[in-house]
Amino acid sequence: MRFLDLENCPDGEIAQCGTFDLIVVGGGAAGLTIVRELLGQGLRIALVESGGFEQTERHEDLNAVEVSGDLLDPRLQNARRAFHGPQLKFWNEDTQRFGVRCRVLGGSTEGWAGKVAPFDEVDFETREWIADSGWPLARADLMPYLDRAAEHLDLGPLIADRGFWASAKIPEPGPIGRLQSFHPFFWQFARSRSHLTDVMRLGADFRSLRDSDVVVFLNATATSISVADQRVTGISVTPSLTGGKVFGLSAPHVVLSGGAIENARLLLVAKRQLGSVLGDAHDVIGRYLTDHPSVEIGSFKAEHRDAAAKILGFYPLQRNLRIYMYSHGLALRPERQRKLRLPNMAVFAVTQISEADPLVALARLGRGKSKNVIADLGLVLGNLHLVVTTLGRKLVNYRKIPLRLRRLIADAAVKIDANFVARDYQARGRGRKIDGLTIRLIGEQPPRPNNRVELSERCDRHGIPLARVCWSSDGELRAAIVRFAHLLSEDFAAAGLEGFELAPEVAGDPGRLLIHDMAHTAGTTRMGSDPKTSVVDVDCQLHDVAELYVAGASVFPTSGHANPTLMILALAIRLADHLRPRIAAARLEALTRDAPGAGERPLILVTGGTGNIGTEVVASLLAKGYRVRSTFRRRLPGTAGVDWVQVDFADPDLPQARLSALVDGVDGIINLAASLSDVGEMQVANVTTLSRLAEAARAAGIRYFCQASSIVVYGSPRTKLVDENSPVIDVNAPIEKQYFAENYMRHYARTKVLGEVLLRSFADVMRIDLCRIAVAQPPGFLDRSFQWPRARRLFSLYRNSHFIASRDVARALVHLTERALTTAGVGVEVYNVSDVNSPTYADHYRAAGRPTGFYLPVILDLLKGVVIGRTLQPRHPIGWFRVSGAKLQATGFTLGGQTDGSLAPSAITAPEARADPTA
Hints:
Mean pLDDT: 87
Helix content: 25-40%
Low-confidence stretches: 427-431, 898-919
Number of strands: 31
CATH superfamily of the domain at 1-126 and 134-147 and 199-289 and 446-469 and 518-591: FAD/NAD(P)-binding domain
Shape: globular
């Protein structure tokens, strides 16, 4: 991953980036998810973010909007300040008089509460009492993407209805079961994977990823969109803080993911610049702006507060050794919505932390701000158990404690008392005692064309017109909210949930309601099939501009009552799935224009040609003048002059005819395709499909087959030096007693041995080289160990991990292939492709002049063998043995050395190898 800050990036470095496959404008939830979904597949992606790693006031200035309608009411703006202000560092209602935007990598997830939920089925329906309602998709169409989105957000099962009680094995509270117009609704919270007392911040999560094909432009504000022949060709950007220069970025696919206001604003600017080229003959861009109207509709009396808070609070659900936290609220039943012709609405409880909380008192004492020292001291001493729990908050974020243990502590806290954890987060560890319990409505705003984003006559410092926002809550919506509130009050009373009182504004004149936005802005580039009422089609592509897409809540036709982030991620994942084959087709079309035809040089098939070793093998063959056909699975190729074919060797239903076509006209095969990490795929990719490929090769009369095996076939050997005659793993005996490794590696070793066995049965008709390859890595791999945390170095520094440069492996395989093609004969030969003098981590540290410090002895690996194999038989762990490559060198092959692809030295910023093992 390359991060280029436009504020201090040389012009030449930007020019060197060339043309991208995809540009994503906006590094918020939608944009980051699209990029994450496409990582590791060889796509050249530019992510354009207007902010940096941190928010500043100068970035906040760019969020300014003009407003009209209800937003001109000072009382409403005061309510917005009270609601949004405490969560955000730089936001203010004078700049952002509507919505919440954070110009920073991660977008609004830098300031959100982490609350998510799936949309209801009714949200997707065309409802005759909600004008312009209805999605071109059903909820069932999106469920697979919602499940994948839940994984991104580290959520539990997506159970939002009454089924939660059974799943959590918690009895439903009696009053809830007696409600007639409402049913339970559950939200979840996306918790950070590292900072366990915080919600997930997608920007920080994204920065930990690695992909050398992705360039992230920071402080880069998009100023215009380029279109030619009704197809997008790129965008222009300018430095966010200083402006002045304008840079063009080119790509055949562009996704706008800047949020509902900025997506509409950029399209409206483009419409002004391009005229009819952008389409929008019906003036739809920017219209149908919605947000979730929010209003406090009532509260519970003090004597009933604790009972209600417990019922309408937080609950744990355990699944697969994890504890997830769910927030319980109430939603209007669909049948009641239909009967009463109401939009979809829900309520949740909000607690106020008491000034009499012992942690609040402790803070006052610590700051010397206590007005009654004796009273505050007594409060602290009388509640020492609550004060001590603040140490637990610090404990779960103490980075020297292993993450698994910290997560176990955090999950246990949720299991014991989810409400306690929720209040601790709400008060940021500064208090938990509640002093009030209010009920807040979050509702669906029916889409209205007059609620919209337009362009102002004023411009920002870059000369881009500001957005002008018109957003109002009409009388029909206000009446619906009042009807809903009274219905809830009646249902509470009838069900026995006592002490609820409606707020005076709800009980009185609906016109006095202060309904403000929830910062869930949506709808300005809505999805649909009719260009008269929508901007993008069902694939989120603009109706009139090919390959220009929009992501985020701006494509929502309606937005229900659920917080939007889960749906934003689901649609982003769906869009990534749509883009992937389109980008692949365009790339392959360009690469295969010069694919090898008939010629004098042999045609070599290289499977897994975009992997770590495969890329080097293809390059080596091309350099020697061979014609090359190569396969890939996920990672797209970038080498021209090759006949590229996409084949999934892990697909159990791969047609034999596909393999027959693959080997047609081929003179030799170098098979690198394999599955390394997915136990479920190993048998298919490493054994079944390998056998079928060999059958196809025999049928086609191919005389040479080079198989990439692995030194793992030796398991944990009995001798310190391993050569080709050393015994391999006996697959008919317990492997754990022969190979002291993780379960997935034992499975991998087993399938590699089986692959060798089955290929030997073809030795009567072709020459087969079984190449047992050591740990192949690109230049700079060992250098990156300098950046490891101390704990990892303690366990790894002494080990010999049998490293060999990927380029040396490729040279060896091509060397053996050339040797076989020029000599007649059949049979099997086995070669170790290894470097007996490969350095340990400690060797590399010492060579670089760095201290190794203390490291743990080999005895730990011996103990590991005892634990895994439950045996004391003498075998060498990974740190003790070496693999001889003498037989390969006897054929005339020599290792390349530092000038030809060795592991080190090199710049430690070299991209990390993340090759697709079945590429």
